[in-house]
Amino acid sequence: MSPRAGIDIHIVMKVVINIADQHGAGAVTIASVAKELGIKSPSLYNHISGLDELKKKLAIYAMDELHHYIAQAVKGKNGEAAIHDFAISYISYAREHPGLYEATQFAPEGEDAEINEASYRIVSLVMDLLQSYHLPQKQALHTIRGLRSLVHGFATLERQGGFRIPLDLQESLEYNLELFLKGLSYYS
């Protein structure tokens, strides 16, 4: 059986990205993608090996987009300003593209070199932003974990409606970033 004319992996991925961005990463299924393409589900296997491949490609795309989004926000900055703008842009991306952001959390069974490489580009970017703090590598990695916990936790709780107290969210974010940055300057 040959693939349907006009459909290739690039078209398939455009549909996958659109579904995730509009309806969430969980809405990406073989059936939903095939329906959007106007083909039967089995025909999609002419282009991909299965749902795990779609999710992996989506995760890599989303991580690359997140990296680009952050890199633009922090370009030419360092120190507190860079870390602050990293956090703000990270959460802005999660707000603007909740389904794609959700896809950045995809972790396939076992090790995957492409997923690890896409993820490491973001870690490497933050390592560069932390250079002005002169942290040993191990401490810098602990710092990155703490920062990621702060921004991912905030973005996830916000998306899921976890902040119910009527208090300005941006003010809460800025307050917690300031606490993090003060703690970081104390240890550096």
UniProtKB/TrEMBL annotation:
Gene3D superfamilies reported in the protein's UniProt record: Homeodomain-like, Tetracycline Repressor, domain 2
What residues does the HTH-type transcriptional regulator MT1864/Rv1816-like C-terminal domain cover? 84-178
Q: Which keywords has UniProt assigned to this entry?
A: DNA-binding, Transcription, Transcription regulation
One Pfam family in the UniProt entry: TetR_C_33
InterPro entries to which the protein is assigned, alphabetical: Homeodomain-like_sf, MT1864/Rv1816-like_C, Tet_transcr_reg_TetR-rel_C_sf
Native source species: Fontibacillus panacisegetis
Query: This chain belongs to which protein, by name?
Result: DNA-binding transcriptional regulator, AcrR family
What's an example of a GO molecular-function annotation for this chain?
A: DNA binding
Superkingdom is: Bacteria
Q: Does the keyword Transcription apply?
A: yes
